[in-house]
Amino acid sequence: MSKLSNLYKYFTKYIIIYCSSLDPETLCCACGYKDANGKQRKLTWAKTELKYDPSYNMCPRDILPCIASGSHFEGEKEERVLCAMTWGMIPPWYQANYKKRPNKIATHNSRLENIHSSTVYSPSLQKQQRCIVVCEGFYEWKPGTDSKVQKQPYYIYATQNKEIKADDPTTWGNEFSETDGWKGFNILKLAGIFGVHKTEEGNIIHSCSVITRDSNKVLSWLHHRMPVCLSNEEECQVWLSKHLSTDAAIKTLNDMILQETALTWHPVSVIVNNGLNKTIDCRKKIRKIKK
Fold it and tell me: In the chain, what are the domain boundaries?
């Protein structure tokens, strides 16, 4: 069994695979926002130990791009920044080499229902270490009608303008201006939390977990769980705010209602089942698997 397959053995309860293929500079523009003075701003990257590498098939322990308040980073003057984080929260009590932590420590997702009482996630919540995991979309699998029917993977993404095709970057027309902000592919922004781990060498490693909840009618046909999607700038601003208490932040997520038109999806090839497949074909639209 390969090392990657061995990882998947522990992630069978619920796993979402992400697609984040935008290069670091373009991602800074796609995550742009309007600041308190009404100026459109693109983000910068916080200087950290990890490096984000774009991928069409991101698996647990890969490096995800996340947005966090600049106040969490020493010497950072920007209101919010992009930070490369390893996907899977490193428990606050874990002291050994984080790269060699046991596979059974599956912290890639955190359940909204019990995040407050978790010994893994609660310390980060108390420190207001909230983040936004950004991606173009994620993959989810619909079970077959019986055990003999292969699961059909789907690619889920934010609803786009009609001229944009999610699986064809040539239609995106990505551009950014200080007047109009970002014009291009509408990325997904998912509520997350992050931890700060100090290695024996004194290096600081950031790790994150995506917050999930029961699916609503938008995706309940596909799976009973889904990531918490932040639908607009106001929700992003509230979630990142250090002025919001932990209880209020969690209540905010519980009160969010995802509009039925917020997400779109299409079936994709089973090649995405293998985390070693990282090509653009992972998100290409196909016909459904025949029953």
Answer: 16-283
Q: Do the Cβ atoms of 226 and 213 come closer than 8 Å? A: yes
What pLDDT does residue 15 have?
Answer: 64
Torsion angle of alpha carbons 5, 10, 15, 19, nearest 10°? -40
Residues 243-253: tens digit of each pLDDT: 999 999 999 99
Interhelix angle 246-255/233-240, rounded to 10 degrees, is 160
Given its phi and psi angles, is residue 250 left (phi above 0), alpha (psi -120 to 50 degrees) or beta?
A: alpha
CATH 3.30.70.270 fits 16-283, yes or no: no
Distance CA(117)–CA(126), nearest Å, equals 11
Helices (H) and strands (E) in the chain, counts: 5, 16
**Which range is least confidently modeled, 38-52, 85-99, 215-229?**
85-99
